[in-house]
Amino acid sequence: GFKSDHIIVGEPTNLGVGVAYRGSISIRVSVSTLGGHSSAPYIGESALDKLIQFINMVKARFNGEKFDEVSSAFTILRAGDWPGNLPKKGEAYLNIRYPPRRYSEDIITEIREMAQNSGVELQILGLEKPVEVSVNTPVVRALVRSILGSDLKPRIVKKTGTSDMNTLITISKSITAFGPGDSRLAHTDYEKIKIDEVVTASRIISNALKELS
User: Fold this and answer.
1) Residues near 83 by Cβ (< 8 Å), separated by ≥ 6?
2) What pLDDT was estimated at residue 188?
3) Taking the model in full, what pTM does it have?
4) Domains in the chain: ranges and CATH
């Protein structure tokens, strides 16, 4: 297959040199119940209640806030078609992020146990393995030297998200992520990139590529 000598993935690293990204597990959660009337929930069965029970279990178990921890996020929740009815059907979408040296199989096993205890069903929609490269990787060292040449202080960063670096690592081991922009603002109304940072990043990448060529 196709191979590359070096890869720089364009990502908002705030001009830091990205050497690691967490892996990702995308899951659809679904449930079907008997339903019932909201006036007598004690004799009915609510799909929404089962989803909420499952959500609370997952978030209590996978509540990481750092790169080397496992985090969970529910991004979609659907249930119910009328205010006076207990929902018969429901679904939710869950995204798990996990660091290197953690195994997706172990995490999925835990989530399946929670699903069984909550009475919900799981469908694994996607799986991305985590990635981490050495700071001595040629492209990382070239970027660091180029940053120093621009009178800036190099920063090595490990990202809590997932990027093309997770998949492109199979094409080249000399890979990194780099670019302008603050990833903390990603997918928010405040996401932006300063023009001078774009110019600086372009100069740094250009000089690094000259060194590698």
Assistant:
1) 38
2) 85
3) 0.91
4) 7-22+131-212 (3.40.630.10), 23-128 (3.30.70.360)
